[in-house]
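Hey, can you fold this?
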Amino acid sequence: MKQTIDSNYIQQHLANERTFLAWLRTSLASIGVGFLIVNFHFANESRLAPITDLLAEIIGILSVVVGLFMIGFATFNYLKKKNEINEQTFRPVKNTVVLISSFMIMMIGLFFGYFLIY
């Protein structure tokens, strides 16, 4: 068999694939949490306020949208890193990690805080 460029960096490509799969698992968990919140809210017989129905629906929809966005981001990121590994131009991006983490903490705090208050 002929050796390819990818075969020179097998460990890096396998690590890239594991990272991609971790993003997929996280996105599926996000989608699942959205469905869980909506189902739990509407299965509960006692309604505290009409706004909670709307909030539960918004959280469910946003969880699905965020999960789908993560799948797209993971695919783009995987393909980009694959090329960077082969071209030996890979640089870790900490700004993206900080931005995504900050955004998620803020959104979770706002929505779940509001949901638990009402």
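Oh, and this one too while you're at it.
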Amino acid sequence: MEQDQDTDRTGARVALVTGASRGLGAALAEGLAARGYHVLAVARTVGGLEELDDRIRSAGGTATLAPMDVAEAPAMQQMAEAIAGRWGGLDLWAHCAVHAAPLAPAPHIDGKDWARSLLVNVEALRGLIALFEPLLRQRKGIALFADDPRAGQKFFGAYGASKAAQMALLRSWQAESATIGPRVVIATPAPMPTAVRARFFPGEDRTLLSPCTVEAERILSAL
């Protein structure tokens, strides 16, 4: 992790955002920083993280950048250990990392895209839950996720199946944690002009979509 000089404040509220370089993840990171959280921003895109850090700093917030792939289990293990050692826990974890496989008829889904969808959207998430659940319980924290229901829609076989499996896992965890914590929140944002959506609907009028900042503010306010 690229350490910010202000991150050794043991009393700071700490928010981890996985998939923070763009879209809803970036908007949530900025919204959390504006609310006084120190943001741990994880994504593969270094440039996007650096731009996010510039925006957070210019608004008076602080962040630590972690250019990592959530599907790399050893890297995520190292991150969890670093968080435990420095802050002792997490107040909030917002997960927005996703693999959006190209649209394709079910018989023509590429095997590599299928495997990557299941790895990132299901298996990696399972591992992250195991790593971050103890950190969230230390601070009675919140785990926040975004649903995008596509199961059964034409050409969404890989993305829709992996997201449906992801939601099944999360709703089980949500039910299991209802009385003991952490609090698991599953939000369903309105359609947003994200890069993922642009790949799915390239001819869409993006001016009709809800900005990511608006959806992030709505979700965070509801928490």
